[in-house]
Amino acid sequence: MAHTKDVKKIVLAYSGGLDTSVILRWLQTNYGCEVVTFTADLGQGEELEPARRKAELFGVKEIFVEDLRETFVRDFVFPMFRANALYEGQYLLGTSIARPLIAQRQIEIAEAVGADAVAHGATGKGNDQVRFELAYYALKPDIKVVAPWREWELTSRTRLLEFAEANQIPIAKDKRGEAPFSVDANLLHSSSEGKILEDPAIEPDEIVYQRTISPEAAPDHATIISIDFAGGDAVAINGEALSPATILTRLNEYGRANGIGRLDLVENRFVGMKSRGVYETPGGTVLLAAHRAMESITLDREAGHLKDSLMPRYAELIYNGFWFSPERRMLQAAIDASQHSVTGQVRLKLYKGNVIVIGRSSPHSLYSTRVVTFEDDQGAYNQQDAAGFIKLNALRLRLGAAIGRRGGAL
Predict the structure, then answer these.
(1) Which residues belong to the active site?
(2) Degrees (nearest 5) of the Cα angle 14, 206, 213?
(3) Where do the domains of the chain lie, and which CATH numbers do they carry?
(4) Where is mean pLDDT largest: 175-179, 232-236, 401-405?
(5) Which pTM value belongs to this model?
(6) Cα–Cα distance between 168 and 104 in angstroms, integer?
(7) What is the pLDDT of residue 157?
């Protein structure tokens, strides 16, 4: 925890919402120092200029509002998707992967404006405080970190609203009552947690879903699309070359319209508790299926299996906030080395919540019709070779079985 007298200038990750507006005024009041605001457009779907205007009303002199959608997808989302990363087998890490980029820009801005501290609006119960702060310290070891939710006395919604009113902070009408759940969103996903979602036995109400229509409401006819890959990354949809952020935006549109990408998950937070989250990752769900299909014909068996074995550890590192760790970089290098041949096209059928692979082709395909055919392979595969292969693999089993018949243990 930073001490108020030690801090001269703070860069705050600022959304412009009620919580971070309260944090902004609280920092100005309690730390008595200059606060710089940084607002990032990661595709959350909100207008960012109001955040700039609100920061101006607070007397902030240095305001950074940046469109980072292309950087987000190119340098963070796509590298993660090369790994087919899923936390606990299901979660596509939409919130987790956004935090290192925000933290990275905060540190860069801090160095540019001569700030000695950074601040975030994450609570003391969640994963985001860990993700932000691990990234801060990895990028700038001597940075001072201010985490208001771990310091202040505004421990209830009532106190927060009282502070806002006392400090002339505008409060939207829908913020005066308890919000039914909290939302975090970016170009990759939308995450909803808390309040009406806290009981994992109760099905989420349809109002929770913002990025997808329900599978039941999706069209009764399938949508066919193609995705082109080059070196493991998606580069075109239906033959049209697009930028990384545009590809994800387009896939989100296809996923939304076909009810794809909903996930109701109880997960294990890094801080120790279980939490229930409702996630929507329409474009990411389509992209994952397509990428795995592309790898299925271009990756060597053992390379692919090794990569799959590394994935849970890689996903856990991202979830826990270790994007800038040496072990994540090491795994990334191995994953990226596997992707050079992952080039070609995948055709998909999208239908009522389902992503169905219907075709895949690649100039680097390892699939050989001549070898695999049930017809005459013209000597491409000698079936007699299988006998020795099987006997060598059976040797230890035969020895073990022989010992077992004499009463030996496993």
Answers:
(1) 19, 99, 128, 182
(2) 85
(3) 4-83+99-178 (3.40.50.620), 183-299+338-361 (3.90.1260.10)
(4) 232-236
(5) 0.93
(6) 32
(7) 76
